[in-house]
Amino acid sequence: MNTFGDTFTFTSFGESHSAAIGGVLDGVPAGLHISLDMIRDALDRRAGRHQTSNIKHQTSACGVSQRALRETDEVEWLSGVLDGVTLGTPIAFLIRNRDARPEDYEAFKHSFRQAHADSTYEAKYGIRDWRGGGRASARETAARVVAGSIAAQLLAKQGIQIKAQLIQVGDETRPEHFDELINRYRAEGDSIGGIIACEVTGLPAGLGEPIFDKLQAHLAYAIMSINACKGFDYGSGFDGVTLPGSIANQHSGGMLGGITDGTPLRFRCVFKPTPSTPKAGVKGRHDACVAVRAVPVVEAMTALVLANFAGIL
Amino acid sequence: MNTFGDTFTFTSFGESHSAAIGGVLDGVPAGLHISLDMIRDALDRRAGRHQTSNIKHQTSACGVSQRALRETDEVEWLSGVLDGVTLGTPIAFLIRNRDARPEDYEAFKHSFRQAHADSTYEAKYGIRDWRGGGRASARETAARVVAGSIAAQLLAKQGIQIKAQLIQVGDETRPEHFDELINRYRAEGDSIGGIIACEVTGLPAGLGEPIFDKLQAHLAYAIMSINACKGFDYGSGFDGVTLPGSIANQHSGGMLGGITDGTPLRFRCVFKPTPSTPKAGVKGRHDACVAVRAVPVVEAMTALVLANFAGIL
Amino acid sequence: MNTFGDTFTFTSFGESHSAAIGGVLDGVPAGLHISLDMIRDALDRRAGRHQTSNIKHQTSACGVSQRALRETDEVEWLSGVLDGVTLGTPIAFLIRNRDARPEDYEAFKHSFRQAHADSTYEAKYGIRDWRGGGRASARETAARVVAGSIAAQLLAKQGIQIKAQLIQVGDETRPEHFDELINRYRAEGDSIGGIIACEVTGLPAGLGEPIFDKLQAHLAYAIMSINACKGFDYGSGFDGVTLPGSIANQHSGGMLGGITDGTPLRFRCVFKPTPSTPKAGVKGRHDACVAVRAVPVVEAMTALVLANFAGIL
Amino acid sequence: MNTFGDTFTFTSFGESHSAAIGGVLDGVPAGLHISLDMIRDALDRRAGRHQTSNIKHQTSACGVSQRALRETDEVEWLSGVLDGVTLGTPIAFLIRNRDARPEDYEAFKHSFRQAHADSTYEAKYGIRDWRGGGRASARETAARVVAGSIAAQLLAKQGIQIKAQLIQVGDETRPEHFDELINRYRAEGDSIGGIIACEVTGLPAGLGEPIFDKLQAHLAYAIMSINACKGFDYGSGFDGVTLPGSIANQHSGGMLGGITDGTPLRFRCVFKPTPSTPKAGVKGRHDACVAVRAVPVVEAMTALVLANFAGIL
Asked: Which residues on adjacent β-strands are paired with residue C267?
């Protein structure tokens, strides 16, 4: 289904070629002043309109596709907000798909066969179902970013800060070399994966619930629901397998027994290289490293999980 | 909360020192012949009464605690089963905690401070709440194994087989050397982590749902809810970060766009070394590698997820 | 929360004075041809643009407020439908609040104190929260009607027909006298309640689940969530209390043990008179009998419940 | 399914002829002292071991079946409670079915065809499924009563009191004449329906949520899930249909817009006469008015709903 959360829920809608994508965010308390700039910033990062590292450079260097750059992602607010302040009612918003024209749609029909989830969507819904092409598209994550930014602003009022960043591209772990490596793969018509680390500070101890509402379980669920994500770990994680207990357990990752311990929460996730590359026969400019644009999506899903748990508390 | 699943639900109860642990499994169709032997086998593996590898050897070699070996785990069936056949009604079962005596309880009071999740449970529930000591205990996973075995038997009737195994202990990847390594850590009063790989064969293409019910998201949620689990990945996973798209995408792990593609489903998970070691001041025989006993728990949670999705289909 | 259902879900949004009201309907299979005429018809009936009985007469006779008549209720489709056919993805739609201008908003501020749920909304959300005025408004039911009509069309493909009608106004049970009675109350600046009966034909036996998913329990939940509804019964209902078992049990209402028995499903619901009357100090034309316009809302909620159960089956 | 509630959940299990019935109550905070006497009292009332009215008289006068009187309903606590105090963990309990012997089982096979929900259960589960006979039995409500009593005790600590009583049997509304009327129907081998009124005092204003979590909607759902219940109304209810708005709206029933208004909550529900009578061919002593024993079940379900909402707040 397309609804996330229990007490703080986000319902997502829209195909890449429908009139709009968007969502409904339910459970936001009344009185929150929403910063549109923060939402804009997160959307820009998702669209690849920001740099990947601290070094100033052209966006085009990130290997971002033309389509992404054309997306202007103007958010239209339908309900739940008045004069920039939340009403406590469901917040509905949409982002128009500006280039959703019939001729695009034809192109979509043909590109359908090359998209990531085509074969599985066909198996599930049958050949006449367009659910795959439009819904499996990463465009859907823009709605997550809008909703997640509101959740993050709510958390920020409680002193909780979420910060994700790209820490590895291929075997490169030096941020100042990421663009160079990504551009190299792009030039070769190929793509490469990346690892994102996320840190949350300011969390109170005690968030999370035994035994099936462990915080790390819900985070893993949320992060693994992002397109192209192939793994999640926290604290000592997979690398900790070689450490003896006397050392590994110094890296809790901020959660013990499924509950926050008051120290910074730290997790990682890995994104596979996109399969839609010139090398694989897909023409046009492509995202050579989708992990770049996944950073604000990881932050968004983290915010949605934490707001949901904060609501439970 | 302590209920897992939507249409095929498992509700778990019991503390390590209460009268019993157990569970209620709801959504099992009528007419399934339950093999008690298969449940017994899974419980034995969870209790460390089996070997870790294919090589025949003494259970005691696995570094399993005395308490685990004393657990006889006799399942008492309360409802939902008649003459070994399911009725379609909720299946309730319990396993008595045979050594739940007052004097044990006193010991529990004192050992409370050393258990894994003590500090977080105290932060959450307050010092007078015993939820931590009893509920955070890995004993709870025995109920998961019973429920998961029934789910697995249901799946087996549809030709779906789940098989997990320990593939790494510390930096050792040769199964025939696992016991030796584990015994070494045990002798040193220390502990070590492990990685479990799980493979599911016989799955039809089409299981899983966009965008928040992706199969890998639910699997990650389920697996990360197991005690001591610190990470989950599938297909190319974390290791795939160094591979170019042209190679990495040959390893789907059986799911694309959150939906099974008809090939074997493959995921991994990592378990941290237990912090309750002689080196950390906890006396008595200890589990030097909890990943050993987690293998049937990983299978159980996988079965619960898949039975839930099969129900949705 | 504002999401209804489990496997066939409807998420509603919008205040009476926000930019739009609308909803997201999730779980509709691909390939359904949507009749916009049927949706239009249901919306017209909700807006009071139809007659109350079989006798042809002017809409204005029904005591419908001017505001209702001004609502044109044009549905804008955002996603999930292409060329009038469902895609299997979430169907998002909106209806603009055409007269949502600042000056209206001022009026809204003042009328806030007279609305039905004002005191309780204030108790819950605090005085600065506009949730009440806008969200408690019956305008929200237009979104239910759109979603319910799609559900009804889905059910109709399976031969299931839902038909609600007003059977009592005050103590009057002759439909041809309803308008006269309603007009009398309106002329007096007062209002009157009504009873709606709903019949569903074509349901297969076997819909519903023990013990908490009994079909009548879900129907009661859905119907009682409609504004101004004060009661629900089915089969022999409240009136059956005076009948001996040998007679009363001939009126099952189509459900036994919470499960359909293959006979027509029959239930009733009662709507209180609106408290917003000239007599109570609220100026302007008013709905003298809100039950009139509730008929298509009752049908809509019934359809949503049944589509959800059909999905479970 | 067999789980009720979201944040305060009750999972029920057990057939009338399985080893036990029982349940798991999740979400009860730690530190509640449980009064076993109050649970005993509620179970006794459900079993017909109390009088129907304030006038002292023999239980046997109520037309209660022999089987009900034989039920001793001893509750065995499995987890979640220590020395009579809740631990914050799931509270699991069971009540043995003392006469669940093979020979009884044979009888059950034959009586199966006469039980209330037989035809619908057969339609749903097929002839070999025993779900109907055992699970549809009113015996299941004993587990609801245990769970509901704990919820009621939790609410009582916050000053919330729930009191249900039989207010009508057939057309008789004078309590002191109920037994006489019931006995008359019993003597004739027939049965009669009854209406129960429930009042809740001490509720704070503000409980309930728009638009689908209106308190009356959840109450209706819970009450309509009780065996033999055919209707629910609150405040002015069905009788209010004849009253003009200027009068009817003085009877809110304690809820406006789905949210408590701080006045006593008042609702009614109606129970049909049992179809299992000598007149219908079912031999042996029978419950001539099942509404008598439904009183504590109505209180129990009300308590479960309110505890769930209190948890949401």
From this structure: C198, C234
Residue A55 CA: distances (Å) to CA of A50, A52, A178, D59, D91? 11, 8, 11, 85, 57
d(CA D265, CA D255): 7
How confident is residue D232, by pLDDT bands cut at 50, 70 and 90?
Answer: very high
What pTM did the predictor assign? 0.92
- Give the residue from chain C lying closest to B311, CA to CA: C312
What is the per-residue pLDDT across A247-293, written as a single tens digit (0 to 9) for each? Answer: 887 888 999 999 999 999 999 999 999 888 888 888 777 889 999 99
**Contacts of A among chains (3+ CB pairs under 8 A):** B, C, D
**Cα separation of B18 and D79, whole Å?**
5
- Select from D121, D212, D232 the Cβ nearest to the Cβ of C231: D232
Give the closest residue to C173 by CA, choosing from B72, D169, B205, D241: D241
A127 touches chain B (CB under 8 A): no
Quote the crossing angle between the two packed helices D215-224 and D291-312, to the nearest 10°.
140
| Residues of chain C contacting residue A90, judged by C-beta atoms under 8 Å apart | 2, 11-14
| Nearest by Cα to D268 from C238, C298, C269 | C238
Q: Identify whether the C-beta of residue C198 lies closer than 8 Å to the C-beta of residue C163.
A: yes
Q: Residues 59..118 of C with a Cβ closer than 8 Å to A: which? A: 76-80, 82, 87-92, 94
CA distance C135 to chain A (A): 7
Query: Could you report the per-residue pLDDT of D43-87, keeping only the tens digit for each?
Result: 999 998 865 444 333 344 344 555 554 556 799 999 999 999 999
Determine which of A212, A271, A301 to mutate to test the interface with B (most B C-beta atoms within 10 Å).
Answer: A212
Q: Residues A277, B245: contact at Cβ < 8 Å? A: yes
**What residue has token string 């809302």?**
C297
Residue D192's alpha-carbon distances to A237, B85, C240, D58, D270, in angstroms, are 65, 38, 9, 20, 11
With beta carbons less than 8 A apart as the criterion, state whether B103 and D150 touch: no
Angstrom distances, CA of residue B156 to CA of B35, B77, B101, B150: 12, 22, 40, 10
d(CA B117, CA D53): 52
Nearest CA distance, C80 vs chain B (angstrom): 13
Inter-CA distances, B303 with B299, C6, C81, C102, D18, Å: 6, 22, 35, 56, 26
Task: Say which amino acid occupies D159.
Answer: G
Q: pLDDT (tens digit, 9 = 90+) per residue, C40-78?
A: 999 999 998 865 444 333 344 344 555 554 556 799 999
Rounded to the nearest 10 degrees, the angle between the axes of helix C291-312 and helix C215-224 is 140
Q: Strand locations in C70-191, DSSP E? A: 75-79, 81-82, 85-86, 91-96, 161-169
Find the angle CA(D170)-CA(D173)-CA(D179) to the nearest 5 degrees.
70
Lookup: tokens for C51: 């007659």
C215-236 burial: b if 16+ Cβ within 10 Å, else e: bbbbbbbbbbbbbbbbbbbbbb
Q: Would the CA dihedral through A248, A250, A254, A260 be positive or negative?
A: positive
pLDDT of residue A23: 98
Q: Which residues of chain A have a CB within 8 Å of the CB of B245?
A: 185, 190-193, 272-275, 277, 279-280
**CB distance D225–C217 less than 8 Å?**
yes
What pLDDT is attached to residue D304? Answer: 98
pLDDT band at C250 (very low <50, low <70, confident <90, very high): confident
Q: Do B166 and B174 meet the contact criterion of CB atoms below 8 Å apart? A: no
Residue B193 touches partner A, C-beta closer than 8 Å: yes
Exposed e or buried b per residue across A249-272, where buried means at least 16 C-beta atoms within 10 angstroms of its C-beta: bebbbbbbbbbbbbbbbbbbbbbb
Q: Which residue of D has its CA nearest to A6?
A: D6
Give the closest of C92, C130, C134 to A14, CB-based: C92
Q: Which residues contact C278 (CB under 8 A, 6 or more apart)?
A: C189, C286
Residues forming a β-bridge with D96:
D20
